[in-house]
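**User:** I keep going back and forth on a fold encoding question. It is easy to fool oneself when nobody else works the same problem. Could you pick a protein and write out its sequence and tokenised fold? Could you put it straight underneath, so I can go through it closely?

**Assistant:**
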Amino acid sequence: MATDTDTDSDATDVFEAHRPVLTGVAYRMLGRVTDAEDVVQEAWLRWTGADRAEIREPRAYLVRITTRLAIDRLRQVQSRRESYVGPWLPEPVTTDFGPTVPDTAERAVLADSVSLAVLVVLESLSPLERAVFVLREAFGFPYAEIAAALDRSESAVRQLAGRARRHVEEGRPRYDVDPAERRDLTERFLEAAAGGDLGNLLALLAPDVRLIGDSGGKAKAPLRIMQSADKVGRFLFAVVKEARAGSESRLVELNGGPAMLVLVDGKPDAVIQVDVLDGRIQCIYIIRNPDKLSAFMP
């Protein structure tokens, strides 16, 4: 005869088995680790309070609860982002898919769906469109399962999926996804910037390169998107010249690609990531909002 302790243990095991998917859905929906963790925690509370004897498919139930909670949270945070100081970028997250995702094609899909470029475009979707896109494109859920999760008809979900897919394809920039080339350019970019070599730095930048800085008004960063190799290169050159003693950079894997974590006196000061096309850097993301760097604290 099963005891309450056994039942609680089983409930925990089931939830933990699905936690990576739930966290992945919530993060792609919200773009912030803290918000995603809050949603997953609330899903856990709903799970422990549910009559699990009536739940035939725990995975479908948990994804449904998490998605609906994420939609509610997204509607709340969208109003706050309207008053955000300067450009808004997602909170960077470590992406090590590990042996659970051995297939190269699946890894590429997951990496792309969590990239800064795609997450920025997803911000322009409605909460329902974003939910459908994340569940369908990133995790491959069947339309029928998505319809049940959102309490919509399957035909309505297919329409939402088509609209969201078109919007993302129109809005997302075209970047190369070759990991080796991207890592090579990231390392060369770091070397040129650290060495204060403006000529080599400019040679790595596309003529219409963009720089997007996110500080939330809490650190020094451009309050508008910068564009053109000359403007971006000279800005970066000036930043390097003003760099404080005790700063260092590390190459890390964030949001599906290589990135630079800049530390000052051992504490995170910035995350820098680049997007690449045709052997040149097309976009540079600089995240300096300290609220979005807390995960990298020692």
